[in-house]
Amino acid sequence: MNTQMGSSLATEKLDRNKFSFWGYKMNQYLVGQGYWGYVNDTLQKKSDITNANYPMWEQGASWVMYCLETCVHDHMLSHIRDAKTPKKAWENLKKIFAANTTTRKLQLWQELNNIQQKDMSVSDYTAKIKSICDSLAPST
Asked: How far is CA 57 from the centre of its chain?
């Protein structure tokens, strides 16, 4: 696994309307770096690690947590701060921000129906519409 990840880490922060897009980018980044197994549990689970291998597992897991923490706004850190594993942190973010609940989908549809251009430029207006539509798309 590559431990020199920091310089190419995506800096776009997760916000409540972009989990699908953010999740896709973060997934691709972690897969490319060889760390996605910490999120999807294909690497050995913490409880299965031998004492000799635990420090290496913990280092990788800590690095993934750092990546997740770096790519969310500070006010969202409380959603992942107490997670014991990257998998749990990802699940917390997905549960909170993905458009997978009826309530969240209805909220997004309402935002889409009520959006008005007003003083936004055409590109900002279409970007906002695209962002909401991306949030309604199935998430990673």
From this structure: 21
What share of the chain in percent tops pLDDT 70?
79
Cα 43 to chain centroid, rounded = 19
**Cα angle, residue 60 at apex, residues 59 and 66 outer, rounded to 5°:** 90
CA-to-CA dists, residue 38 to 17, 59, 92, angstroms = 25, 11, 15
Rounded to the nearest 10 degrees, what angle do helices 19-33 and 122-136 cross at?
Answer: 70
**Burial of 46 by CB count in 10 Å (0-12 exposed, 13-18 middle, 19+ buried)?**
middle
pLDDT, one tens digit per residue, over 28-62 is: 999 999 999 999 988 766 566 666 777 888 899 99
Q: Is the dihedral of CA 113, 117, 122, 123 positive or negative?
A: negative
- Does the pTM surpass 0.70? The reply is no
